[in-house]
Amino acid sequence: EETANFEFPLITKAGVRLDVLLNATTRRDEQGNVIGVVGIGQDITGRLAQEREYTRLIDTANAPIFGVDTNGRVNVWNQCAMRLVGYSSEEVMGHSLVQEFITEDYKAAVQTVLDQALQGAETENFEFPLVTKAGAHIQVLLNATTRRDEQGNIIGVVGIGQDITARLAQEREYSKLIDSANAPIFGVDTQGRVNVWNQCAMQLVGYSSEEVMSKNLVKEFITDEYKTAVQAVLDMALHGEETANFEFPLITKAGVRLDVLLNATTRRDEQGNVIGVVGIGQDITGRIAQEREYTRLIDT
Description:
The chain has helices spanning 45-60, 79-85, 89-92, 97-101, 107-118, 165-180, 199-205, 209-212, 217-221, 227-238, 285-299, and strands spanning 3-11, 17-28, 34-43, 65-69, 74-77, 123-131, 137-148, 154-163, 185-189, 194-197, 243-251, 257-268, 274-283. By secondary structure, the chain is an alpha+beta fold. A hairpin with a 5-residue loop joins strand 11 (243-251) and strand 12 (257-268).
């Protein structure tokens, strides 16, 4: 009865401890009689030291990190995950991550992410909710990475998370403030498609958010003679060069011309990458009309 991959320590003549991985094979003579054992060993001292260091780094990382095996059972659960979710490693180790710790409405989605990683297809920036031991809901941003052994065989998944609960709350508050602001505010993504359209913009121009969302701002809502100028302002903001007090006309849904004073601000994500432009406008139609009247009166 032969043995493969048996780990045991050896002490060298100099008193140094080595970790050895052993394959023990039966040795036979020409008649098939057992005459001994041949052991083929591998010094895994360095590898085990690396694994211990890897485990220590994971356990003390300032991000929640978990791992599951090929059956989805938890086999890594660091201190940050414990603090965030409230379950100790003893409470989660060996348990199914999806079946026991993921909310019902996200079980299928999280299982898909794990299954893909177990096939070598890794996932970045996947958002899902977790319910803590105390019953609180937290939002997590997850990177799921395939875990492999030294031979390249897939042995599980490591997930590195980020608690984005506070960030999402701030974004919701930001959206609420924008939507209820008493100035027309719009936003476009890097392709110039509308992704912010507040109530004041809707009241001023007459188009609902449903009518403008994902449509190209310049091509569909700016007058022909100002398309080039407005596109240039957006392009500059997308390169980090913001514009203040840019005047241009807008035609409302009812066909009325408005004069708008615009501040175009670059919009960035948490890593500082440009993700679009936010424009804060001011309706100066009345002011321009007064200035024209004032000029006319002076002139005459």
